[in-house]
UniProtKB/TrEMBL annotation:
Xref: PANTHER family: TUBBY-LIKE F-BOX PROTEIN 6, TUBBY-RELATED
Domain Tubby C-terminal, first and last residues per copy: 1-154
Pfam families linked to this entry: Tub
Originating organism: Musa balbisiana (Banana)
Record family assignment: Belongs to the TUB family.
Lineage of origin: Eukaryota, Viridiplantae, Streptophyta, Embryophyta, Tracheophyta
Name of the protein this chain belongs to: Tubby-like F-box protein
Amino acid sequence: MQCTMHSIPISSIQEGESVPAPSSFIHSDDQRLSSLPVVKGKEPVIGFSSTSLSESNAPVQINGEPLILKNKAPRWHEQLQCWCLNFRGRVTVASVKNFQLVAAADPSCHVSPAEQEKVILQFGKIGKDIFTMDYQYPLSAFQAFAICLTSFDTKPACE
């Protein structure tokens, strides 16, 4: 999975940085948030974009590159003889829907390796039809939930 967060600059994950806040709010049904289309391929690619709510509905511009989230690479577990992610006890059932997202930063962005390994969003199964979602700054609850919902779309590798 790869998510491009057009309203969140990559600099927001650097220490001491923050995400720009919208300058106005929706006041009617005529003003809507827009999102980039979901592109189907080998893996889901998700784009979220917040909009400026002026009459022109022009997208909010951020300074610098957008934050890109990608699947965290699993580690080989010798005893289990399989690839695993450490959910720190929060996910208890193996599922193709389980994932952890970390920042995917180009070396020119000066994001430390520690920041690139930090899990920003994790989602996983804990029971029959029961899942858990953990997220942190710079994602909002709405953005995290929307990303997690995409894991319920069909999985091409499992069909």
